[in-house]
Write a structure and sequence with these properties.
3 domains, Rossmann fold, PIN-like_dom_sf, 6-stranded mixed beta sheet, alpha/beta, 14 helices, ATP binding, ATP-binding, PhoH, 18 strands, elongated, Elongation Factor Tu (Ef-tu), domain 3, 475 residues
């Protein structure tokens, strides 16, 4: 079934009647276009949902902006309807045929027919009362409450009502299927792909052109490898039908290819550095748990290309300011000073990078540190709208806490000559109502895969310390 409001859609009943979905306020605030996401089915909005939208419309937060957008969308839908709204408003026109159902608004007072003990003044309970009323008024029809609030869904189930989560915003149902950017070639790869194989050298790299059954599954800028005596580490440069072209990589595990004194410690780090140091790759996404080296590798590559190669004018670093514990309140100072407490990871990694030059001495390292700090700008996400970054190396840290809409806002700030790097761990999401499947980081990894100017690597191994590695396994 096409509808994706539930994690697993139920088997269609024999009845041709469409379903009636009652939307909780948090669904509209989470996805302002959610009224258009139910295809041939009907949508019902209780009056309490509209009341809560009105309460949330003031302010500059993402929730307030979404509330205002929903209100404008509903105004557009109602304005397009000339007859009475009691019979429902066709959504085909306002949604440009994205939805073919009807929108119903609560036009009459509904008695709070709830069990004794549930406070009738509470907004959630009034919405539940509407669902009970609709279920009794439409016994032959499936009435479903859609809510992002787990407690609301549990209460609905306790009252014998059908309730589902809203999953239309999910990029993937299962994040285990998320593109990793890395593929291990099967042991018999060369047996099946060596016929008519071509090989040649270019700029010190070996290129292969092969034909075979695995080639259509490959994506441009996907890394392939094969361990063993004749080990191969390469990147896919071109895919056309059953033909694929590979190119060998720079070996960043060797000290002679070190980046700002840093060498790759494992296979995935080597792949990541090949993307970060490639001027033809404009967008890089790095996924991995804490300690896999995402920030250190990115900063090392950024400093090399800004200070030594002069490819970019400066480094801009930003991250979502979502506190893990209790918020400590307003912070004094300029924008950069306010962002200071959030940028501990930046300072930690700069300290490591500054110690890589052992011959510089204390004075030399202090001077280098000052030079580096002058070329790194820390910016807040709040002031990104309307900006254009020209010839910058933009680093988005903790990107798993961004919504797809926020991610789009950030990446579209990139002007000519700018490289964007997104880093994060989708297992550590702190933003309410955001899940691994609907995170902005998951969204860009899935949407950018296969584009010739983008690349992605999922880092597997932690390289922080034996204590950190053991803690990651057992805690």
């Amino acid at each position: 079934m096409a509808i994706r409001t539930a994690a697993r859609a139920k088997t269609k009943k024999a009845s041709p009647l469409t379903k009636l979905f009652v939307l909780d306020t948090n669904v509209l605030l989470h996805d302002p276009t959610s009224v258009y996401r139910f295809e041939e089915h009907d949508v019902f909005l209780p009056i309490m949902t509209l009341e809560e939208l009105d309460n949330n419309k003031k302010g500059l937060s993402e929730v307030s902006r979404n509330a205002r957008q929903v209100t404008r969308t509903l105004d557009e839908i109602v304005s397009s309807h000339s007859q009475g709204i009691e019979i429902g408003i066709a959504l085909a026109g306002p949604s440009h045929k994205l939805a073919s159902g009807r929108l119903f608004l609560q036009t009459e007072a509904i008695a709070n027919d709830l069990p004794i003990g549930l406070p009738t003044a509470k907004a959630d309970n009034q919405i539940l009362a509407v669902v009970i009323h609709l279920q009794r008024a439409n016994p032959e029809r499936e009435v479903i409450l859609v809510s992002k609030d787990i407690n609301m869904r549990i209460k609905a189930c306790a009252l014998g009502l059908e309730a589902q989560d809203y999953f239309n915003d999910k990029v993937l149902e299962d994040t285990d299927l998320l593109y990793t950017g890395v593929l291990e070639l099967p042991a018999n790869f060369w047996d099946k792909h060596s016929q008519d194989m071509e090989s040649w050298k270019r700029d010190g790299f070996t290129l292969y052109r092969v034909n075979g059954p695995l080639c259509p599954q490959l994506l441009v800028n996907e890394f392939i490898y094969q361990e063993g005596e004749q080990a191969l580490y390469a990147i896919v440069r071109e895919v056309s039908g059953k033909m694929a072209q590979f190119e060998t990589l720079v070996d960043f595990t060797h000290p002679k290819n070190s980046i700002w004194g840093i060498t790759a410690r494992n296979r995935e780090q080597n792949f990541a550095l090949n993307l970060l140091m490639d001027p033809e790759v404009d967008f890089v996404s790095l996924l991995g748990q804490a300690g896999t080296g995402k920030t250190l590798l990115t900063l090392a590559a950024a400093l090399t290309q800004v200070l030594e190669d002069k490819l970019y004018s400066e480094i801009i670093m930003t991250r979502v300011t979502v506190p893990v514990g209790e918020d400590i309140g307003f912070l004094p100072g300029t924008e950069e000073e306010k962002m200071g407490p959030w940028m501990g990871a930046l300072e930690d990694n700069l300290e490591v990078l500054n110690k890589t030059d052992e011959e510089a001495g204390e004075w030399g390292r202090a001077a280098t540190h000052d030079l580096i700090r002058n070329r790194i700008k820390v910016k807040s996400l709040n002031f990104m709208r309307g900006r254009t970054f020209l010839n910058k190396f933009l680093i988005i840290d903790e990107a798993q806490n961004l919504t797809p809409k926020q991610m789009k806002t950030l990446i579209t700030r990139a002007g000519p000559g700018t490289k964007v790097v997104c880093m994060g761990n989708i297992a550590q999401i702190d933003t309410p109502y955001l899940t691994e499947g609907s995170s902005g980081l998951t969204y860009v990894v899935d949407r950018f895969k296969g584009w010739k100017h983008s690349g992605h690597v999922t880092l597997q191994r932690g390289e922080r310390s034996r204590l950190a590695d053991y803690a990651g396994e057992v805690l």
